[in-house]
Structures are given as C-alpha cells and as structure tokens.
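Task 17 of the worksheet. Students: predict the tertiary structure of the chain below and write it out as structure tokens. Keep your answer in the requested format; marks are given for formatting as well as content.
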Amino acid sequence: MTKPRQLPHDRVLPGDPPELIVYDRLQPCPYLPERIARMPLRIPARLLQRSELERRLDTGDRRQGVFLYRTSCPGCRACEPIRIEVEHFSPNRSQRRALERGNARLSVEVADPIADARRVELYNRHKELRGLASDRDGIDLEGYREFLVVSCCETFELRYLLDGQLIGIALVDRSDEALSAVYCYYDPSFERLGIGTFSVLKQIELCKTWGLRYLYLGLYIAESERMKYKARFLPHQRRIDGSWQTFDREP
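Model answer:
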C-alpha cells in the first residue's frame, strides 16, 4: 500500500494553531510598479481566536480570505504595517468635517458579512471608476464570497446607507485588543461624502465603545498614492524593522 504523502517540513509553521504555507512565489508588486513582491500565503489549521489574531496583527500579519500573509519582498521594505492607538488619536479639521458630514447623511449598521449582487456591483464599480481595475477584472459572486466573506477569524461588516440604500461596506476583523480594517469600498458617485475617511473614524469610535486599544489600517506605503492617506491619522504607529514606532506628524 502506498504511504500517505508527507508535507514538506518547511511548509508547516508551528504555532497555536499551526499554519500551512500554501503559496510562496515572487510576483509583480500590486502596489508599486516595477517592483517584485513576496507575500507568502498561510492558512491556519482552524479558526483563530481573538487572542491568536491579536498576536498575528502585532507581528504585522494581514488577512485575505482564509489566508494570512506578511510581506517578505527581496530588496524592498516599502510596506509598513500601521495602527492607531485610539485613545491618543486626535482627528484633524478635515477628518472632523468628514465625520460630521457622514453622521448627518449616512446610517451605519454592524452585521455579519454576506455576499449578494448589490455588494458585487458596488465592489466592481468602486474598483473600476477609481482606476483600480478594468471591466474584465470584475469579481463575481463566488469570488466576492471567497475574498471578503469567508474568513479565518471573527469578522463583521459595517454597512453605510444613504436614505436606506446601501452605498458602502467596510470589512473588519476583531481581536482581543483591536479592530483590523480589512477592506472598504463604496459607490464612487458619493466620493464627496468622504466615506473612506468616515469609515476609519467610525471604526475608531467602535474601538473606544468596545474598550479596544488599536485600529489596524493595514499597510502604509509612502510611495503609493493609494496608501498615503493612512499617514494623516495622527498620531499613529508603524512597524519598522520589527518594532512599532510612533509618528505624530505626517511625512
């Protein structure tokens, strides 16, 4: 009888729970042109508890679907995990206006994430009209579910509604001490509402309401126009060379 095939030892990472590396190849950087990226995808052996996600966020991990990843790119350290210690955060004038404008016009719901035709439409419209994708790059219902609904940890969605109509969604993970902003999209027709900024500020409010210490904003990349806005939330911390460093003024 044929023996069961053994997994390579370097593909299994010990931990609580252990993780399996399912993809680890060099690829074109999704953020900076002409750069080479390495973002090994790992899948936990089971769903993560809040404390287990906390440890991974603290070491710079991000989540995509059921996978975790941390950038490990050859010759490039442009990606810096960024988080806000919410008790120390102070919104600037522009952010206060965005919060007031959003509070005046939008209603917000916290619920379990779902996949449906309206969300797929909004997601594709957001990417296309902001120049992030072409028609052929559009996601379908199953792709949306795998990318934004299926998760390896506790995840919820913030729903942004204007006069009862869904116009935006933010996917958020929860750990012991933090929320982690995974992805936000909205109808670009309502760009002037500043839903991206409003969403971050509402997540900071949730952190305070729930007694959480941090809001993780993903990766900050100084050379990426799409990522620069994150540095405007001050003060914030960025993980550089393995340690979190505080920044109290915008680069």
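Marker's comment: The radius of gyration is 19 Å. The chain has two domains: 9-80, 82-247.
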